Amino acid sequence: MIKLLTVVCEAALETTLLRDLESLDARGYTVTDARGKGSRGRRDATWGPHANIRIEVLCNAQTASAICKALRERYYDNYSMVLFVADVEVLRPEKF
Amino acid sequence: MPHFEPVILFFLLGALAGFLRSDLRIPGVLYESLSIFLLLAIGLKGGVELARYPLATVALPALVVVAVGALIPLVAYPVLRRFGRLPRADAGSIAGHYGSVSVVTFAVGTTYLARLGHEGEGYMTVMLVLLEFPALVIGVLLARRGEPGTPWGKVLHEVLAGKSIVLLLGGLAIGWFAGPGGIEPLDRLFFDLFKGVLAFFLLEMGLVAASRFGELRRAGPFLLVFATVMPLFSAGLGLATGALLGLSVGGVTLLATLYASASYIAAPAAMRLAVPQANPALSIGAALGITFPFNLLVGIPLYHRLAQQVVQ
User: Fold this and answer.
1) Residues 6+ apart with CB under 8 A from B215
2) A71 interfacial to chain B (CB closer than 8 Å)
């Protein structure tokens, strides 16, 4: 089953995080600007340090759990980050 | 009110709208565009002025200005640690923010002085560029003393290849190379529109500053006091250094303004990567919520008045 892994985090992490994903065997990703509210307050994206991004990755279960583990170790203590994984059906699953 | 700079009213309007929870919002794309314009225009203007001076006359003052500027985070850090009882990461991060400079405060300072006919030495833009990053490095060193694993490569890249340094330095180089004659066809865009764009930008900064104010209130009274006393101390350093270097009234005022200002654009981005444990709400809240409006409303006119006395 292909997993859809979604990370919502502060935009400051974008470059570092994408490098991490590639080194953890993610074959691709989609990044979108995001705004919202959570335990670290309202992040309204009107201003650089308050901008959020949402990164979506389609990958196999093994890669998904490796990414979860790595991100939790590296970023959960000090950055605003939410991560969730869902089972999805994908056309052309061999791509991921 | 001959000494009141009208663009500041736009900042107040933005802050008021923020406090009233108005639905006024400046789209992020416009904010980006305005900041690119301001940085380029400030760089170009500095470059055109710089072309009038032999480089050797700028080198010595620049060295002194950077060396004295390095004192600011070194003074701020022990104060934050001892009196504010802040953890090392927060103290180092805030010290870095206060040692670095705010481009917008500098821009308001130059428009204020231009209106009074006291424009400073044109090469002050060089000081603006040079003061931006050394304090950030000092702040990171203070915050992470002895800790291995600082991503220095990433941090230096973030600062030195960041848009503010690229556009300011690029503008300086283009202005310097093209000279006043070469830039003249662009005057209408970059110089005539400057104040209007600054007004727009200040409207946005008012909105953002108002939204930071609540966070700061939770941080306690120490930071409120620090955010108003620290710029006064730094401005004092600027007044003394400017007078020692024999700068004009405008130059001394701008140097005091630069030292007094605290970075809230370049510094947060760099500190977030270099000192992730530091709480950005504290440093941005103090720099943007208190020190920035303080400098706009009280600081710049005060530094100008003191500079007149120091230079005479």
Assistant:
1) A41, B281, B285, B289
2) no
* B208 closest CB neighbour out of A16, A42, A46: A46
> Hey, is the C-beta of B85 within 8 angstroms of any chain A C-beta?
no
The nearest CA of chain B is from the CA of A92 a distance in Å of 36
Q: CB contact, 8 Å: B245 with chain A?
A: no
Query: Which residue, B102, B76, B2, is CA-closest to B305?
Result: B2
Residue B265 and residue A10: Cβ atoms within 8 Å?
no
Q: Does A10 touch chain B (CB under 8 A)?
A: yes
The domains located in chain A, with CATH, are 2-95 (3.30.70.120)
Reported as a pLDDT band with limits 50, 70 and 90, residue B211 is confident
Interface test with B, best of A9, A46, A71, A73 (most B CBs within 10 A): A46
CB contact under 8 A, B269 and A51: no
What averages of pLDDT result for each successive group of 10 residues across chain A (96 residues)?
93 90 92 85 69 93 94 89 94 86
User: Max alpha carbon distance in chain B (Å)?
Assistant: 55
B24 touches chain A (CB under 8 A): no
DSSP lists the bridge partners of residue A87 as A3
Q: What are phi and psi of A36, to 5 degrees?
A: 175, -160
Residue with tokens 């004295």: B68
pLDDT digits (tens, 9 = 90+) for B132-189: 888 998 999 999 886 777 777 877 887 788 888 899 899 999 998 988 888 888 888 8
Nearest to B272 by CA among A82, A37, A91, A49: A49
Domain B27-311 has CATH 1.20.1530.20: yes
Domain edges within chain B:
27-311
pLDDT, residue B214, reads: 73
